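Reviewers of the previous submission asked for a worked example of the structure-prediction workflow described in the proposal, so we include one complete record here. The input consisted solely of the amino acid sequence. No template or homolog information was supplied to the procedure at any stage.
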Amino acid sequence: MADQVAPYLLRQTTAAPAGPVERVWCAYRIPFLPDFVSSRGTTGQTERDLLGWALGNQAGIIGALARWKEQAFAIRFLFRPERSTIEMALVLRAVAPAGQGAPLAMALGHEVTQLLAGAGIALVPVTTDGDLRALLDPPGHVYITEVRQREDLVPLRMGDAYVVYPFQPPMSSWLTLFESLMRQPAPCAINVHLQPTRLAPEEQTNFEQAASLARGLEHLQHQGDLADPQAAVVGGLYADYLRRLTDPLLLVTQVASPDAQVAHMIARMLVPELSHSMELRAAQANGQLPHGAEVVTPRTPPEAAAAHATLAFLEPQFWGATAALPAQHRLRFLTDAPTATAAFRFPVATRDAIPGVALRAPAASGARQTGSKIFLSYRRDDSGPTTGRIYDRLANHFGKEAIFIDVSNIPLGVDFMSHIRQTIEQCAVQLVVIGPRWLDITDAQGARRLDNPEDPVRQEVEVGLASEVLVIPLLVDGASTPIADSLPTSLRAIPALNSRPVRHMDFDYDLRIIIAAIEERMRRGPQH
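From that input alone, the workflow returned the following structure tokens.
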């Protein structure tokens, strides 16, 4: 099967003070994007509703990738006039101690494949050295232009303050951008580099001090000649950095082409796609924070080489003239997951086709009759509150009608087991929520419920295990997988199943992995 083919790994080992460091690159092609309108059954929803759902889903993917500190992910859109198509690819760069880079790269590829599958986006591994190198570094000389969060130097009474106006992503489908890309006379690539990172101690200190100083100046604004009305905006910006950048990401957006005018034109078109614009004075008058984007072009050979390093090696370089202090050099590139969706995203087909991009045809109306729902099995006394959270997240993603949760869904007067069997036949997945007391809860006589053949939870799981439904144990509230000897004979297959923890601190991440697995099962159906 194509999804079992491993990507080609390009490796490089370099010396470092703490020992040799290995960098590994790999890539995946994206043959099509999902037709969000047709595939979600969105009759009656507005274009804004569809965009909100799609972009929210992509923000969730970024949030899930944020745990991979200092690893790099790049989405690339490549237009070639002779083919009249826009090719799409995802390139990864893993960095680790020597000998650990390849396993890390494979883990990155596995996770991003699952996450994108949950959004209906399939990845096809790039399997040859030549194809990988062509994706990393397009042949021939290219001009590179970057679109960044806008820098500014704000004059205050105690001196100028360096600030960065963050992106404020508009609700955009990117269809106009891709139409313009298709009209260009020369090849052109859009490269969006995303790299989860951590704030350095000096960055954290600088942000805290700047926010504190600006707030102090703001307090003087009503004292005659000491008034400094712009201090409130500066203080608000630095306070916003501290709030948003608790789990920061480096974001670099580039446009590359052998034609300098093409690179500059597409970069200019990206500006309104990445951010609304609000100048300092307007923000001050409205009590808001400024935001915006700007185009930056290398002006010297070293700057061009630095921009090329980001494109070809996925190693972000911070080049260009700036008034930033050393502790502020990365601020132009730092962002959070919701803001990163301005650039690290895919176009959304809300009404029309995406120019140059193939869309996945929606499944036929009867294609998923035996696997379109989710059965949620749990014990109320064991994991009720956590199961409620899980249900809310699944219902928000799939719709309430797609989730069968407990006996409240069973009509009055019907045979319990008959209804359970009929319901499970309509399900793609059965989630068995196992909390700390799932195994040992007793009835009024002190007997373990699970040992009773008439126990509803036992019966639900027995039916699931005997059917073609995919059964996924979810381990919640610190529970571990029960051992086989502790289970009734009919349930002893549970320990052999691939379970998934659902942790309070990583709830969003864990649920996105689960949703991706559910959607993959719905797409493929039962595996024989």
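The chain has a mean pLDDT of 85. We consider this example representative of the routine output the project will generate in years two and three.
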